[in-house]
Amino acid sequence: MEYKFSQRVKNLKPSAIREIFKYASDPEVISLSAGNPSPEAFPCKEIEEISKKIFEENPISVLQYSVTEGYTPLREHLKKYLKESQNIGSQNDDILITSGAQQIMDLCSKSLLNEGEVVICESPSFIGSLNTFRSYNGKLAGVPVESDGMNMQALEKVLQENKNTKFIYTIPNYQNPSGVTMSLEKRKKMYELAKKYGVLIIEDNPYGELRYSGEAIPAIKSFDTDNIVIYAGSFSKVVAPGIRVAYTVAPKEIFSKFVVCKQGSDVHSNIWAQVVCYEYMTKYNFEQHLEELRKIYSIKANFCMDLLDKYAPKIKYHKIDGGLFIWCELPKSVDMPEFCKTAVLNKVCVVPGNAFLTDENEKCQSFRINFSTPTDEQLEKGIKILGKLADKIIK
Amino acid sequence: MEYKFSQRVKNLKPSAIREIFKYASDPEVISLSAGNPSPEAFPCKEIEEISKKIFEENPISVLQYSVTEGYTPLREHLKKYLKESQNIGSQNDDILITSGAQQIMDLCSKSLLNEGEVVICESPSFIGSLNTFRSYNGKLAGVPVESDGMNMQALEKVLQENKNTKFIYTIPNYQNPSGVTMSLEKRKKMYELAKKYGVLIIEDNPYGELRYSGEAIPAIKSFDTDNIVIYAGSFSKVVAPGIRVAYTVAPKEIFSKFVVCKQGSDVHSNIWAQVVCYEYMTKYNFEQHLEELRKIYSIKANFCMDLLDKYAPKIKYHKIDGGLFIWCELPKSVDMPEFCKTAVLNKVCVVPGNAFLTDENEKCQSFRINFSTPTDEQLEKGIKILGKLADKIIK
């Protein structure tokens, strides 16, 4: 039988990063291509303790069916926590627990996006979200990212030219993959433009709590008096990604639609994981844990940037204040796909930048390095190899 | 701002059952409306042990990102288990771990169903699946269920009249809500019809392992030599629903598309839960556990049917061999919505049958009782009340 897939997914392909991961799984290859939190960042002992306690005291509570909206104590706690720490959330919002932040992108697409409608993204942007928008036949419109966020003239032009824009997708802090943080001025401007053109903003903030230098900049959601911002937060980088817990703060009407859609997607998220997150946030010192994470990643990031300065002077990169990625650039003369292939043959795996573009076939002189997954030795060895390669091809 | 939801979900409403659950949450109301496994059916001690061991030995393995396809040892074990126990799966199939079986319906809809294409369902059928098909603007075509499954003449007629049918959705064992099991003859006929008309079959089998009387009937997937059956199995009823682990055995090409779609939905399912299922299936006596479950549900089901015979002779019902539900019928003279409302006012909550129809506005003389969630006392009290009500309105 010849299977007839739906129009929306007929041409969908596995993400380019997945293909690269195939090389990365070769134990001889140093993978700088992943996006995994550092193994030392997981609160293993605490989760073990919490889990033990749950199963001793009330196992049924984490084994029985639960409600689609999410574990009520976690939702209530997050409301308070987000309000107090970042002024996120109002009377007009509600909070939904999701199976990772990827599901938030799925819910946004499914409930808001008609086929052919436009999603404006930073270009480059997170490939996972782009692929979800693509999977609902959304049309991606990329806006170039500068060192302080999207180019706002370009954003307004795209809004003018695409009257059928549904939402702007942005990762305002230490953007994946560019590492860029959007300035407060641009956040305000983006909000004004969204309001002016009647579109929503999806503010995806998985790394926000991992700022290791500089001043925190208010979330766009913190000045959302018009109820046009859908905020996405996640436990993947601050507790653990394998348990798949994230949350969205969205205007109530949108929240209600999300709940109906989530009911049809997976009924509810794993409830054990939700209880673990709640207990961890409330019975342990969560703020101190975040401090430790910032320390771990600050050391790793600085180590990586020092290595680049020392061993790969021909590779330009954007200095970062947080997150897990460094965005590297090579001169126009370099054939990037060729460079990345040669790197793999030399046992180092990075992600070619075009994988993150709204049009993957566009030319891109950048590649992404992740420094949270490899060990220090691997990082040093890997960057030395990249530096030598760059020296060799850039005269 | 007036939110403009997508066409596909604009008219989507929370399931009728959800609305009924609001009454059911009143502690004074006896809920016969849920579908929860019995609390005594959960292997709490074993899951506690497994979880403890995981966190002592290799916590990172259940906390780090994992692969979309699912935990490899679980997939490999399920392949063997399904092949040996039910002859399910061939060289042409692969197996994907999902976040509950609801996600399988989502993946089927997303990857196969264009807006307006037809899904043929048993009428009545499981409301959760119907709502997922609806959420992708699939058109539902119901085929009446007889005591041995769908009426096959009616099925063929619907296939003839709807050339744009994408798949037939069936729950062959102790169907939710009707309790009906499809005969082998009808399974073979359904397969032949699907082949003849070039449509797929989704075989949803969450209760198959819970047969407590009569002979097991081979799964449709067991004679799928043409690669047209997508099989859905689940741990929700045989381990625990709150951990959200299910699996689909699908032709490889469809499997590959599912993987890409799942990547965009939730990246992967909670990995702790997948390891728990694997360890439980392989390190404990899973077959004996199933035997115990069958005993628990057999006792509960027979107790419930005896109560109906004794206290509610005017309520007709379909005798069951497995599953968690009993489908009750009242004479045509009875106004069913009114009956269900009166029942709630008398502190018993059941689900009116029309909630399970492809057209909820159609008239339906049935209602669904769940016997796995309430205690024996609640069941007895509840059925006495229903019996009295029936006596009162049926002259």
Describe this structure in words.
Two copies of one chain form a homodimer. By secondary structure, chain A is of the alpha/beta class. Chain A has two domains: 16-43 and 288-393, Aspartate Aminotransferase, domain 1, CATH 3.90.1150.10; 64-283, Type I PLP-dependent aspartate aminotransferase-like (Major domain) (Aspartate Aminotransferase, domain 2), CATH 3.40.640. Chain A has helices at residues 16-24, 44-57, 60-63, 72-86, 101-112, 127-135, 152-161, 184-197, 252-266, 271-283, 286-311, 336-345, 376-393; strands spanning 30-31, 93-98, 118-123, 139-146, 149-150, 165-170, 200-204, 229-234, 246-251, 316-317, 325-329, 348-349, 351-352, 366-370. Chain A has an eight-stranded mixed β-sheet, with helices on both faces. A four-stranded antiparallel β-sheet of chain A has the order 10-11-14-13. A two-stranded parallel ribbon of chain A has the order 1-12. In chain A, α2 crosses α10 (271-283) and α5 packs parallel to α6 (127-135). The longest helix of chain A is centred in the last third of the chain and has 26 residues, at 286-311. Chain A is globular and about 60 Å long. Chain A starts with 15 loop residues before the first helix and ends with a helix. In chain A, 56% of the residues are buried. The mean pLDDT of chain A is 95. At the A-B interface, α2, α3, α5, α6 and α9 of A face α1, α3, α4, α6 and α7 of B.
